[in-house]
Predict the structure.
Amino acid sequence: MAMSPAGSEASFRQLTVDLPPSLWQALEAAVEASGETVEHLVRVALSERLGIGDHGTLFQVSTAAALVEGLYKGVVTVAELSDHGDFGIGTLAGLDGEMVALDGRFYQARADGAVVEVADSARCPYAVVTRFTPVENERRVIDEATDLAGLHAHLDGLRESANAFYAIRIDGRFDSVLTRSVSPTAEGVPLAEAAASQTEMEFSDVKGTLVGFWSPGFLGGALVSGYHLHFLSDDRQSAGHLLACSGRSLAAVVRRESEFRLSLPESAAFLRADLSRDPSEALRAAESKP
Ligand SMILES: [Zn+2]
């Protein structure tokens, strides 16, 4: 067998299969109803049947409580994360900026304002990823969001439940975006203290994508409940944890995810840490605009 570079188009193989009429009709009906291509539908069905790809599954590394307590050592590589998703958010080892993954590429938004694509070998202490390629008929237009609360209100209307996870992707031209990026911080310094010296950046009239999730509140300190979004500009020059934004004619896709996988660090620091405190207050302070 000829070897092809990993991830290249050349590594795709073609499959020809004879289908009985009933299966063909069901496939056509599913394509019609979902707006997905036959190819995408078959790929998803195959990967679900074969147990690969984690479709509809949120994969999280470590817990929000651990981050709040200052556990910033990288516990998973970007290569490992990309086995579980092509879309998501997190932070880099040593709390070195914000991480955002979009269309299979992982970016680091550093506190000095630089945005760089991260190496497969880079490590993350905390991340949430999923497989998420929106299809056209999932898009909903948000006519106008004058501020972050307004955007959240629109997103509320696109969720049918408070008791599930949702992957959220919003593309468009934003009138304004305010982000922050955390600075490298010594292990053990609480997140609230680290976030107090974060760098805020404001962008106006910028095309880009908001990447993130809505998570239910019933899992306590395991995760950041509610909305958690990161921004990445189309030119890949601006990014960070979203603090505020406004925009018009934004294309939003909000997709329910019913499965949640939590991968816990095996480090001594994590195993010995006191994670009994409720991190919600510290998270609110660290994740939103004061
Ligand atoms: Zn964030």
